[in-house]
Amino acid sequence: xxxxxxxxxxxxxxxxxxxxxxxxxxxxxxxxxxxxxxxxxxxxxxxxxxxxxxxxxxxxxxxxxxxxxxxxxxxxxxxxxxxxxxxxxxxxxxxxxxxxxxxxxxxxxxxxxxxxxxxxxxxxxxxxxxxxxxx
Length: 135
What we know:
Keywords: ATP-binding, Nucleotide-binding
CATH class: Alpha Beta
Shape: globular
Protein name: ATP-binding protein
Number of domains: 1
Oligomer: single chain
GO molecular function: ATP binding
Radius of gyration: 15 Å
Distance between the termini: 17 Å
CATH topology: Heat Shock Protein 90
Number of helices: 3
Structural class: alpha+beta
CATH architecture: 2-Layer Sandwich
Order of helices and strands: EHHEEHEE
């Protein structure tokens, strides 16, 4: 597994995305899949940056692994922020207009819809969110 650890701030999203793209390109990842993973990285890291630590800040580690049978990319996000399982959040009602819909939740909803698997656990004082996408 290849990993990158950065301060959990929005300014580091591009750094993590570039790291991911280099790995995905080396495996010949299709452009559509890479774009979906880039969007997921943006959404998940944004949530961690804005909500996990509060004012004191903290770190986030993002790990990348390519698995075989089936061939898929596995991205693991790990932080020591406030315990939070984004998969428990109710999906937004996308049939409502933007004005009538509650604020929040659309980013994680998009990630859930674009990935093939997602899981969350809180272990050893860490939030661990895993997304998987078939290649």
